[in-house]
């Protein structure tokens, strides 16, 4: 029987690599994001790269409850969900100056995009998760472990990602008795994604690489390999964990 996987933010970057990896493992994959053209192109790429693969675009803004509910209905057509990967996210640039209204709006946008999106999609799909055997994976960030504030982030990104950890631990407790595992993957710096596109200096990229012990940027495939393991039947005894995929930029947490 073919397994069903759902990957939020699966149209680009890490999510696209995850969707391709799960398709290669034999899953039918629902690829969720806001931009229909991006999703359709990603699904075509996956079908070309993995002969026989079925990747289905599901357009939704995951910060909007009604759109999440509609997406869950569409995903439900594929059957019980074996693997749910909450990967959608973004870094919200903080406003300059000390305008508290602007700061509040930026924090809310960051929390909506990185935290609420995962909470809404997971809640809408919880009843549809395979029991036993379901796999829930949350993509966090090394920023949750190291902090991260500066010109590109007001700290709201790190805070939103850290909040995912506590939420995921509770879910692991709640869903463990049903035979569902819940784990957090915290990537370090991963190049070749939209999140670190234009606007980030050469010095920033070089510093991120210098932070690692292996002397290179991560790739979306580095993260996808770890997701594929956590999503596999072999990982049934791994739950409630935060796993770093960071080239050694963060040690042992
Ligand atoms: N790249 C890194 O170094 C790095 C490091 C640590 C953690 N991460 C995390 O990894 C995840 C993937 O990021 P990435 O680096 O692959 O960047 P990316 O290419 O920008 O991917 C983010 C994806 O999320 C989707 N998305 C954003 N807001 C959404 C919304 N409201 N509703 C639905 N989909 C939404 C985007 O698609 P649409 O715009 O079409 O909606 C996009 O496909 C993120 O959670 C990010 O925080 C990345």
UniProtKB/TrEMBL annotation:
InterPro entries: KR_dom, NAD(P)-bd_dom_sf, Sc_DH/Rdtase_CS, SDR_fam. Residues 3-193 form the Ketoreductase domain. Gene3D superfamilies: NAD(P)-binding Rossmann-like Domain. Pfam families: adh_short_C2 (PF13561). SUPFAM superfamilies: NAD(P)-binding Rossmann-fold domains (SSF51735). Keywords: Oxidoreductase. PROSITE patterns: ADH_SHORT (PS00061). Belongs to the short-chain dehydrogenases/reductases (SDR) family. This is SDR family oxidoreductase. It comes from Kitasatospora arboriphila.
């Amino acid at each position: 029987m073919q397994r069903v996987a759902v990957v939020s933010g699966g149209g680009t970057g890490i999510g696209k690599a995850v969707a391709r990896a799960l398709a290669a493992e034999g899953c039918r994959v629902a690829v969720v994001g806001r931009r229909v053209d991006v999703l359709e192109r990603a699904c075509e790429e996956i079908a070309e790269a993995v002969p026989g693969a079925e990747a289905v675009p599901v357009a939704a803004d995951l910060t909007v409850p009604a759109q999440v509910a509609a997406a869950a209905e569409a995903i439900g057509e594929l059957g019980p969900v074996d693997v749910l990967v909450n990967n959608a996210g973004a870094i919200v640039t903080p406003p300059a100056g000390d305008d508290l209204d602007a700061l509040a709006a930026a924090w809310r946008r960051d929390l909506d995009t990185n935290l609420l999106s995962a909470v809404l999609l997971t809640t809408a799909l919880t009843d549809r998760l395979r029991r036993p055997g379901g796999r829930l994976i949350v993509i966090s960030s090394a920023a949750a472990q190291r902090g991260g504030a500066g010109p590109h982030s007001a700290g709201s990104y790190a805070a939103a990602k850290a909040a995912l950890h506590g939420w995921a631990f509770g879910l692991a407790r709640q869903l463990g008795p049903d035979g569902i595992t819940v784990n957090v993957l915290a990537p370090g710096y991963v190049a070749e994604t939209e999140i670190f596109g234009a606007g980030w200096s050469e010095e920033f990229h070089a510093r991120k690489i210098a932070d690692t012990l292996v002397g290179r940027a991560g790739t979306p495939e580095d993260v996808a390999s770890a997701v594929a393991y956590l999503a596999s039947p072999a990982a049934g005894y791994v739950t409630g964990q935060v796993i770093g995929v960071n080239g050694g930029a963060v040690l042992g947490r």
